[in-house]
Amino acid sequence: IDADERTSLLRKAIPDGMLHYFTEDDLRELSLVMTTHSFEAGDVLVKKEDRLNSLVIIAKGLVVAKNVSMGKRSYDEQRFGPESPKLGFGWQSLLSSSNNARAPIPNFKGRILAQSDGVALMLSAESFR
What we know:
The chain is an alpha+beta fold. The chain is 24% helix and 36% strand. The strands form two sheets. Strands 1-8-3-6 form a four-stranded antiparallel β-sheet.
């Protein structure tokens, strides 16, 4: 996935109301530090009660989150991928991360399972800072 496509995917994955905080140069810089991870249908991307520390953008393929809660919010099922309403998950982990090791990071509860082969781009909280 080339730099332009990464930047475009990142732009689409940013939640409503947050895009204006990023310049085009910011987006390009962040897209260059994202790592690429391939997955296969049936792979578990996130296990119950994992501590997320990255934004995950599903660049290719489809993943489904079931019985998910993040902080005080609960969701029955959410789909992530280029053909889905949402492209990525994990923004809360980036926004709530801090250099202070005692600062709480919201715990994810649920399971995210790959429904097809695909590719995920990951932006770690450390790279985001």
